[in-house]
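Continuing from the previous page...

OK, I double-checked the sequence for GntR family transcriptional regulator against my notes and this is the correct one:
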Amino acid sequence: MGTTQLESVQEPKYWHLKTVLSEALDSDFAVGEILPNERDLAARFGVARATLRQALEQLELEGRLQRRRGVGTTVAPPRVGVAVSTSQHEWEGGVAGEAWQPVDCVSEAAPGAVAAMLGTGSGPVHVVRRIRDTHGQAVAAELLYVPASSVPDLSAIDAPSGTVRARAVLRELHRLGVEGQDRSVELGSARADDARELDRLPGAPVLVVTTRYFAAGGTAAVSVATYRADTCRLTFGDSGALEIRHDEQQRQAS
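Thanks. Re-ran it with the corrected sequence; updated structure tokens here:
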């Protein structure tokens, strides 16, 4: 029986190097330790810097390494389990001790894909920005898009801008109540704003969790949350279906 085409494909050099580096991280380096610079590492393992860079990027994606501003590349601690479920996403206004803390609120048009989910067209919506802390570390940044129809009594609240207005939007959303939700997760790259708040470099791998909340027969809000891929392991306790995306096709798997 002949070998398949897949079996005959040679393993990329950087992939083999990734395995070697992973073993070295276990035996020669401690959590938090700074790795030598790329030139020294390439010389140590006898590879080109381009090959080394590919292997390091893969290890960062897998959560073994972290790139930190002004520090360099360090050995990452084990990923922290972060629950993503209805019970973890209350709208109480971000009092001290809660996982999500409101940062700001502005009124502006939602991105096209979000506007389509909300059914608001090009009109402005409330955009609440929140940060999620776990064990004292910022692990996620969220943009929560809330149409005016979901918080009709907001105008009666003296909350002109910033954190005060963000809390007011969350309180009104809590009063509305959420009847259901759907969620998708995909790999992305950190935007400049998210990277700064999460202590990452722009373009670093992140997990993007998009959640649509339903109430009163329509979409009440849409959340786009960016999680650090190097430190977070997302868990889904009470979520329903898992969305699997492949090009333009979408399938539902329970």
